[in-house]
Amino acid sequence: MGGPNLEVFKFALYVFFPVAMMVHYGDPEWYRKYVVPVSVALDRLVCIME
């Protein structure tokens, strides 16, 4: 089997990967820069199609 080093690596990956994703994508500046423009564009597209 992998041994204790593999288990430590897996534990670190399971704990820190989701935390890193939340820190990166949960940043309000990232949200304003990438999500809001797409949302506005989709709203305009929906309004045009109605």
From TrEMBL:
<dbReference type="GO" id="GO:0005743">
    <property type="term" value="C:mitochondrial inner membrane"/>
</dbReference>
<dbReference type="GO" id="GO:0051082">
    <property type="term" value="F:unfolded protein binding"/>
</dbReference>
<keyword id="KW-0812">Transmembrane</keyword>
<comment type="similarity">
    <text>Belongs to the PET100 family.</text>
</comment>
<keyword id="KW-0496">Mitochondrion</keyword>
<dbReference type="Pfam" id="PF09803">
    <property type="entry name" value="Pet100"/>
</dbReference>
<keyword id="KW-1133">Transmembrane helix</keyword>
<dbReference type="InterPro" id="IPR018625">
    <property type="entry name" value="Pet100"/>
</dbReference>
<keyword id="KW-0809">Transit peptide</keyword>
<keyword id="KW-0472">Membrane</keyword>
<dbReference type="GO" id="GO:0033617">
    <property type="term" value="P:mitochondrial respiratory chain complex IV assembly"/>
</dbReference>
<protein>
    <submittedName>
        <fullName>Uncharacterized protein</fullName>
    </submittedName>
</protein>
